[in-house]
Amino acid sequence: MEVGPTCHYVMGGVEVDPDTAMSKVPGLFAAGEVAGGMHGSNRLGGNSLSDLLVFGRRAGLGAAEYVDGLAGRPAVREDDLQAAQDRALLPFSTATEGGENPFVVQLELQKTMHEFVGIIRKADEMEMALKKLEDIATRTRTVSVTGHREFNPGWHLALDLRNMLLVSLCVAKAALERQESRGGHTRDDFPVMDSDWRHVLLVLSALGGGQRRAGAPGAGRDAARAARPVRDGRAEEVLHRRGTGRARADQGEKA
Amino acid sequence: MTYDAHFRVWRGDAESGELVDYPVAVNEGEVVLDIIHRLQQTEAQDLAVRWNCKAGKCGSCSVEINGKPRLACMTRMSTFDEDETITVTPLRTFPVVRDLVTDVSFNYTKAREVPSFAPPPELAPGEYRMQQVDVERSQEFRKCIECYLCQNTCHAVRDHEENKEAFSGPRYLMRIAELDMHPLDVADRKEAAQEEHGLGYCNITKCCTEVCPEHIKITDNALIPLKERVVDRKYDPVVWLGKKIFKRAGA
What we know:
Largest interface: A-B, 16 and 15 residues
Helix content of chain A: 40-55%
Number of helices of chain A: 7
Shape of chain B: elongated
Structural class of chain A: mainly alpha
Distance between the termini of chain A: 60 Å
Radius of gyration of chain B: 22 Å
Order of helices and strands of chain B: EEHEEEEEHHHHHHHHH
Largest sheet of chain A: 2 strands, parallel
Largest sheet of chain B: 5 strands, mixed
Strand content of chain B: 15-25%
Strand content of chain A: 5-15%
Strand order of the largest sheet of chain A: 1-2
Number of strands of chain B: 7
Oligomer: heterodimer
Order of helices and strands of chain A: HHHEHHEEEHH
Strand order of the largest sheet of chain B: 2-1-5-3-4
Radius of gyration of chain A: 20 Å
């Protein structure tokens, strides 16, 4: 029997407020595997369930409280809706221009992340992965699908690819930045745990400078090492585009 | 160890469809679902198939392979000859949504029709007491992953749309049997099994047992014992007489 490692659980996730489970996007709440922070570098067996129960409740209460605090019903901007629809349907129109099959791009993304940001990580390999991800980002934007909108797995994947790419970028960038081994993160070039890193969390943001560190007060090394700005050409654009969506959500609420 | 297999996959929707031939590469150790996914990567990216765990535990990838109801993720390619044509079709008993995906809501409707566990009203949670042997008896039925292969293969509904109204199918009759075996359940499951869920439609041909990927002995351990208890209640002359007397006394 062939035995191999596989991705089983994502321990990082959307940055949320621990009490209300609200993310940095007003009105967007996250709980469970999609949210970051609960498990640190290791998820103990059974912890996901308690995570769901505790933070699911907090998210529910937080969302209810948020809605109660709103002056009026937030409105969706018509042009936002149109832009989202156009973006979702884009893979159908690129078909005529000979775009790639989304399944082929997904396979490439899987291969890249498995080989270069896998179980044992090295700086040069992760840098190579980030370069490859740039290329995959370009290919992701031009995938094309055939057929129609009813239960079309190719189209579903084309929609998911953007998010898969975003998560892959976050994982690769944060893993490259963390120069130690801890829990599920093993660096061949930094094989031991480093106590200075203990209080440091890495946050990737689409707005303002890309990557920052959230640390406990007085975690000495944080201040000394300024967060490296992330400039990734095409990849940055993906992150940035999500950023504009966020700004619009703010405006929508005021409306 | 790679070879080219000949796949024949049903493509279509609720209105019409046809079998389409695909030559496709097969590697050592692969299962039918892997090949379906390869078809999406190569020739048919809009080929619809429902799947999730790839480990035979979610019950999503139920299809018919060479006419036999199977889980695509648990059907090894090594069980076929290299020159064999492998035909993959959607579950026949349920309406097609698209390609290999069917609308299985019949099963959800039937599930809702089975009243849930009914403990004695005077018993508070925490006061439930039962023998280990009673606990173990129903464990086999709890292995069900709801792949609906049994519901699909059962001849009572497979080619008899008209029976769907009256018959709940092996999966839900098994659920009723499980509740009926529960020593703390006080609901009348026997009468309901016969009158409302169509237990009598079952001819104990054991087709459901044969296709069950969890190897649950549906017919032997759930349906036959349930039939016996129903018969015991419905046709026992003493019970019948008792009912008569009770009715007369009550009138």
